[in-house]
Amino acid sequence: MKYLIAEDETALQQSIATYLERDGNVCEVASDYTEAAYKVDLYDYDVIVLDINLISGSGLDVLKKLKAENKKTGVIIISANNSLDDKLEGLDLGADDYITKPFHLAELNSRIKAVLRRGKFGGEETIIFNEIKMDTRSRTVYINNKMISLTRKEFDLLLFFMTNKDKVLSKEIIAEHLWGDHSDLLDNFDFIYVHINNLRKKLTNEGAKYIKTAYGSGYKFMEEQ
Amino acid sequence: MSELKNKIGLLRKASKTFLWISTVLMLAGTVALYFYTKKILQGEAEEELYSTEARIEDALASGRELFSLPPVMEIVREPSNGFEILKDTVIYDPSQDEMELFRELSTYRDINGQIYKITVRSLIVETEDILMAIVLSYVIILLLAFLFLYYFNSRANERLWMPFFHNLNQMKGFQVTSKTPLELKESNILEFSELSEQIRLWTDKVRADYENLKQFTEDVSHEIQTPLAIIQAKIENLINDEKLDQGQYEDLTSLQKDIQRLAQLNKRLTLLTKIDNQQFINAEHIHLVDCLEKSIDDFREISTIEIDFIKKDDIIANMDSYLANVLFSNLISNAIRHSPHGTGVHIVMKDGIFSISNHGHAPLKYPEKLFNRFYRESAGTKSTGLGLAIVKKICDMYGFGILYRFKDSIHIFEVDFRGTL
C-alpha cells in the first residue's frame, strides 16, 4: 500500500512512517500544507494520514482538494483538538475516520486497514490470514471455512491482532483499544487476560496458534515459526 | 447567607435613625411644652386670684359691704389673724352639681380694725383644657411635620442612593463567565462615580484574567497533545524493535500508562473549558435510564465490583447526550474507584433522583472540597481528579441539584434532575 503522512511534526511523521513501513507499505511524507497539496495533486495514495493543523494551511483544505478531484483515496484525520465540531466537519468533508492525538500507532494502523477494507472490497469487508477469514461487516469469523463463535470483545481483539500482525501489542494498547477512556479504571489487566485467553483457546482448538506472548506481558500475532 | 439576615438595609437604617430622633425630640418637646405652658397658665391664674383679692380688699376698705359668692369668693370676719395660703382644693360647685378642682387663695386682712379672711377661688378645669388644647395641637402639628419630613426624606434618600443600589444589583448579577458588560449607572456624586469606576476596572480585570486563564488552559492542553503523540509513537516503535530486554519493555509500557493519564487529564480539562464556554448547546430529551444502563454495561465489562441498579422510574432530561454520558460515567467510575475490595456499588433511579452509593471506611475529611479540581482524598488513587469537578459543572449548567453525604459507612451521591435538591 502507498500512504501519505501529512504531519508537520517531523518526529511524529517519521514514527508513523516507520511503523507503517514495517508491514512493507510505502510511506511518503509531507511536512506542510504546500507539500501535502502538491503531492496529493501529483500522486495517488491508498490512504492519507492528514493532520488538520498543518503549518501553512489547514488539512481540511487538502481534503477538499482531494474530494474536488474525485480521488478514491482514504483519509484519516489526526488532530490535537478533540472537539466534536472538528470531527464532524472532517467527516462531513469526506474523511473516512478521525483520530485524536495522542494515539497508539497500532490503533492508527487498524483504522487505516479498516478504511482500506471498506474502500477495496466495495462492501464485502473481509480480512484473511492463512486459514482465518474475518468478515467485519457481518462480524463473523471462519477458520478453514468453519464458523467459530466469538464474543463481541473477542472479535474486536482478533481484528486488532490481525490488523497489527507481527507487532508487539502491550496490554495498555489493547486496553485502550477495547475500552477507550474507561481503560484507566482497570487497576490490573485481568480482564484482558480473560478475553485473550478465551480467544486463544478458541483459535487453538481449530489449530490456529498465532497469538504469542511477548516480553512476558505483551502479545504478538504472528505466523508460527 | 445567615449573616445577611442580621443586616439592615441602608435606607431602612437611615429612616430608623430619623424616626428615633424624631420620636425622642417630639416626646421631649411635648413634655417641656406641657410643663412650661402649665406653669404660665398657673401663674396667670394666681395673678388673677391676687388681683381679685386686692379688689375685694379695696372694696372692703372703702366701706362697702361685700357679700360672699361661694365657691368663687368668700369673705368672713375672723377674730384673729392667720397665714396666707395658696393651694388646690376640691369643693362642691352647685352650678355644676359636682365636686370640682379649684385653685384657692385665702388671706387674712386687717381692714379698718376688723380682720377679714378673704378666700378667692378659680376653676382649674379651664386652664387644664387650655393646656390640653395647646399640647394636642402642638403634637398634631409636629406629627404631621414629621410624617411629611419622613416621607420626603425617604424619597430623597432613595433618589440619592439610586445609583448605588443599581450598581450593587449589577454586581450581584456579575458573572465572570459571561461577556455582557455591567451597566453601571453614572452619578454626579463624586464617591459614587469613583465607586462605579473602580467596579468597572475590577470586573474588567477579573474577566480579562479569567479569559487569559481559560485560554491558557486551552492552549496548554492543546499544545501538550502533539508532544504526547510523538512520545507515544516513539515508544511503540521501540517496543517493536527486537533489541529490548524484559525490564526495558516494562518501563516502556509503564510510560504508555502515564501518557494515557496525561491524555486523559487533557481531555477532561478541555471538557471543563468547553462546558465553561457553553459549547454544549445541543440539548435533547434523553431517557436517562437507557443512557445509564449503557454506561453500567460498559463498567461491568471492566470491573469486578458488583453494580446493582434499581430502576423505579425513568427520568427524561433535556440535556446534551454526550454530557449525560459523561455525568453517569464519572459518577460510576468514582464509585468503583473508591469501593473497598469485595463490596458493591448501588444505583437507584427514582422520583427524578439518581443516587449512587459505595462503601467507605470513613467520611471524607474535606467534603466541601469534593467537587474542586484536583482534590483527592487519598494520594493512592490514580484518578485525574477532574471527574467530580466535571460532574458538578454539568449539574450547575443544567440546574440539577447535586448532593454528597456519608451515612452508615456509605458514600452517597445524589443528582436531582428536577433541580430541587
TrEMBL record, chain A:
Residues 2-116 form the Response regulatory domain. It comes from the Bacteria. The keyword Transcription regulation applies. Signal peptide: none annotated. One of its GO terms (molecular function) is phosphorelay response regulator activity. GO terms for biological process: regulation of DNA-templated transcription. CDD domains: trans_reg_C (cd00383). Residues 124-223 bind DNA. Keywords: DNA-binding, Phosphoprotein, Transcription, Transcription regulation, Two-component regulatory system. One of its GO terms (cellular component) is cytosol. Residues 124-223 form the OmpR/PhoB-type domain. SMART domains: REC (SM00448), Trans_reg_C (SM00862). Coiled coil: none annotated. Gene3D superfamilies: 3.40.50.2300, 6.10.250.690, Winged helix-like DNA-binding domain superfamily/Winged helix DNA-binding domain. The modification 4-aspartylphosphate is found at residue 51. PANTHER family: REGULATOR OF RPOS. This is Response regulator transcription factor. It comes from Cerina litoralis. The lineage of its organism: Bacteria, Pseudomonadati, Bacteroidota, Flavobacteriia, Flavobacteriales.
UniProtKB/TrEMBL annotation, chain B:
It comes from the Bacteria. Residues 219-421 form the Histidine kinase domain. This is histidine kinase. It comes from Cerina litoralis. GO terms for cellular component: plasma membrane. Its EC number is 2.7.13.3. The lineage of its organism: Bacteria, Pseudomonadati, Bacteroidota, Flavobacteriia, Flavobacteriales. The chain crosses the membrane at residues 17-36, 130-152. The keyword Ubl conjugation does not apply. It catalyses: ATP + protein L-histidine = ADP + protein N-phospho-L-histidine.
